[in-house]
Fold this sequence. Notes:
Elements: E1 7-11, H1 16-27, E2 31-36, H2 39-51, E3 55-60, H3 66-80, E4 85-88, H4 108-136, E5 139-144, H5 148-151, H6 157-177, E6 182-189, H7 200-207, H8 225-232, E7 243-246
Parallel strand pairs: 1-2, 1-4, 2-3, 4-5, 5-6, 6-7
Amino acid sequence: MRLKDTVAIITGGAHGIGKAYARRFAEEGAHVVVADIDGQGGEATAKAIIDAGGSAWARSTDVRSLPDIEGLMHETVKQFSRIDVLLNNAAIYVTQKLWKGPVEELELDEWDRVIEVNLKGVFLCSKAAIPIMKRQRAGKIINIASGTFFSGSGNMPHYTTAKGGVVALSRVMARQLGEFGINVNCMTPGSTMSEESVSDAVLKRREGSMDKRAFRRIETPADIVGTAVYLASSDSDFVTGQLLVVEGGGIMY
């Protein structure tokens, strides 16, 4: 087990790829903290992990609220004594009816809504976890970016801006935290079939990415979680400030 007895907080861990991270981390021996604004969904994910023989605990958490996040960190340390991994996965994407269109038509409220979760949420969670990891002189922070950062594709100005900001923030933190033994890295999943209910529209959208890849098939959560395990494990102890693209060869740089 590559993550045996590590304590890993996964934001947005109740559904989709976040749920897949949580399950895989538990299979690798981690004590998983499922932090999600959907408290019931988080409880269901944690219960499924426990029923399968893993270790998990769920806490309803809004990544837009610093007091809520600080409570998450405090309660995690109280229960498990430490925080080894923070996986900043929580984000607004198309499953939350993400607006698409020209920059000049993007409403300010919609801009703020996405930036607040997708970029500020990463900042707030990291801000609250860093002092704990500094005291430990160790920790892994994994941030989820997006391939739209490279191409400007997707017709989502606010989403792509936020994900580009996540890459930049990760690199700054990597520079600042290396002396404390803290690794900070990013990964970019591609268009992934992570929906719990797959409509014809979803299937068409996922199939639309296939022709751009070296591996011409639909990406699934199983294609992604191994990279997260690598970044959370001791195998990546000398890797920091990096952006790993997990898109089946759709982006090469």
